[in-house]
Specification:
By secondary structure, this protein is α+β, with helices and mostly antiparallel strands. The chain contains 16 helices and 14 strands. Helix 2 packs antiparallel against helix 9. The relative contact order is 0.06.
Length: 599
């Protein structure tokens, strides 16, 4: 550009000289004009060359600037993608680290509860675990297994393997031991910043000075217990920012419900940071793509030169940008799948733990139910066996058959009482699991239903035996009365005593008392009555005997229900037929005797 200006000045000077010469008549006009035209053409060519050179330089400068800006956008995008991928690595890692972290969080919560309950400090607990040495895996597991907060809360139970995983997570340096400082770090109260909040120098907000504003997702350490601000009633806490170590007071939540601080959880904090990184990545990808596409659009009419080359280079960057955006989407999907997998693993562990708790509860429940059912069945079997024996023997093997029956009836009745109590217990247990649809408790409910049926069956069996026993009692009583009547009738016939004679001999005051009758029968030689039969027979006559009753006892009539021969002797083979009895005839029984072969 400077050379062009020099040449243009020289041309002006020459033109001036020419005009002066013209005035003096030194040169002709034609010659002068021709010379000027020639020189002007030369300068025009030179100027065109300079313009072209300047334009080329300008285009190259713009092209380089465009390429640099676009490259910076892509580089930033790729850098954010790498950073986000690295940040999300703990969330996407396909190992047991996430679960171990969950176990450690649970273990730390239990230890915090222990510290609070005992009024201890984390340092004191560390010393208790260390027992004068280092805290290693063996000591940590042994201490945790005996921790009341762990053993008494069944839903908080951690297995030995899970406790070992906790320790490996606690041992961040991998040295096999945990220092007091590393141990105490897990017991410091931390908060995650979830809203825009300012740190002030005093608890009271009015008149305080703002130290700085904290950013969302910053972490702060609690220095003092949260306190209510006296004027506004807001909960505030003194804390230290991990980012720069600044200390001050922070409002935990506003009056309108806005939450500024939440309890810090490493996993939750990491997820928030990853979400923020992905949001930044999305924004950067959008800006990069918009920038490159807009510049390509601006250069679409350029077909040669540096800008054309830059247009091609910009077009080559679009696949990189789209690839980064695709990888961002893939990363978010991978994180989502990993979180679901981890959550599923946690839920599976919870279900496993809950199933163990339910199984223990079910076993206890079934143990209680089985105990009462076995008691009912045992009591029932014993009472039923005694009843069946009495029913079969009619008490013939008992010295006091009626007392034995009374005792057995009482035993059978007691089974019903025990069964009612057992059914009430089973109902109570079933009520506790009525809404459970699966798992050990559901299976226990099915077993309880079977137990209920067993108790009902035992109760039914006892009631049946009570009915049979009552019938046997009636039979025994009837047979005893019949035997007494037979003995009395036989004696009367042997002595030739009529009912009137016997009544006159025994009666006093118009009736024969049971005591007099007993004494009379006992005095009969070989009366053939067992003591029990005598007792039963006399008991049935406790009200005494009238003449009519005595007459009825001494005489017995039976009705012929089938044609039968009347013989002269008991033994049919040695006897002679007196006559044939016909159906419907009545006969007086004089004596009972069973004969061989006839019964």
């Amino acid at each position: 550009a400077g050379t062009t200006q020099q040449k243009a000045s020289a041309a002006l000077a020459e033109t001036k000289s020419f005009l002066q010469g013209k005035q003096k008549g030194e040169v002709s006009l034609a010659e002068a004009m021709a010379a000027l035209i020639e020189r002007a053409q030369v300068q025009h060519v030179a100027l065109d060359k300079q313009k072209a050179l300047l334009r080329d330089q300008e285009h190259r400068f713009v092209a380089n600037r465009l390429l640099k800006d676009a490259t910076d956008h892509v580089a930033k995008l790729e850098g954010l993608l790498i950073a986000a991928t690295e940040l999300a690595a703990p969330l996407t890692a396909d190992d047991a680290g996430f679960l171990a972290g969950a176990y450690l969080t649970q273990a730390v919560d239990l230890l915090k509860a222990h510290i609070k309950a005992k009024g201890m400090t984390a340092e004191a607990v560390f010393k208790e675990i260390a027992a004068g040495g280092d805290v290693n895996e063996e000591k940590f597991v042994a201490f945790m297994e005996k921790l009341p907060e762990l053993t008494e809360q069944k839903d908080a139970a951690l297995s030995v393997d899970q406790l070992k995983a906790c320790f490996r997570r606690l041992d961040s340096k991998g040295g096999g031991v945990v220092s007091e400082e590393d141990f105490a770090e897990h017991f410091r109260v931390k908060y995650l910043i979830t809203g825009n909040v300012s740190m002030t120098d005093t608890l009271v907000i009015k008149g305080s000075k703002t130290g700085r504003k904290l950013e969302i997702n910053e972490i702060v350490d609690q220095l003092e217990e949260p306190t209510k601000e006296p004027a506004l009633g807001l909960m505030r806490v003194k804390a230290r920012a991990e980012k720069d170590g600044k200390e001050g007071y922070l409002t935990m939540a506003g009056n309108q419900g806005t939450v500024y601080l939440v309890a810090y959880d490493p996993a939750t904090a990491l997820e928030k940071r990853v979400d923020q990184a992905l949001a930044e990545l999305l924004e950067a990808g959008g800006k990069a793509q918009k920038y490159v596409e807009s510049k390509i659009e601006e250069l679409k009419s350029v077909h040669k030169g540096p800008l054309s080359e830059t247009k091609v280079a910009l077009a080559d960057m679009l696949p990189k940008i789209k690839k980064a955006q695709h990888e961002r989407k893939l990363l978010r999907t991978t994180i989502g799948e990993a979180k679901k997998k981890q959550q599923d693993a946690i839920e599976a562990e919870k279900r496993k733990r809950q199933e163990a708790i339910d199984k223990e509860a079910a076993d206890k429940m079934l143990g209680e139910a089985t105990s009462v059912v076995e008691a009912v069945e045992g009591q029932c079997d014993k009472a039923v066996a005694a009843a069946q024996a009495l029913v079969a023997s009619k008490g013939s093997d008992q010295d006091e058959p009626m007392k034995a029956m009374d005792d057995t009836e009482k035993a059978l009745g007691e089974v019903s009482t025990t069964a009612e109590a057992a059914l009430a217990k089973i109902k109570e247990l079933m009520e506790a699991v009525k809404n459970v649809v699966r798992g050990p408790l559901s299976e226990a409910r099915a077993v309880l239903v079977k137990h209920k049926v067993k108790v009902g069956a035992s109760e039914t069996k006892c009631k049946k035996q009570l009915a049979l026993l009552a019938n046997a009692r009636k039979q025994v009583s009837g047979e005893a009365t019949k035997a007494l009547r037979g003995a009395l009738a036989k004696h009367a016939r042997a002595k030739g005593l009529s009912a009137d004679d016997l009544f006159g001999k025994l009666a006093a005051g118009g009736a024969v008392t049971a005591a007099v009758l007993r004494k009379f029968i006992e005095a009969i030689p070989e009366h053939g009555l067992r003591a029990a039969q005598l007792d039963l027979g006399i008991d049935s006559l406790a009200a005494g005997l009238t003449k009519l009753t005595l007459l009825d006892m001494l005489t017995e009539y039976q009705k012929c229900v089938k044609d039968v021969a009347m013989t002269t002797m008991y033994e049919v083979k040695d006897s002679k037929t007196v006559r044939k009895l016909l159906v419907g005839e009545l006969v007086e029984v004089l004596e009972h005797k069973e004969t061989e072969g006839t019964g």
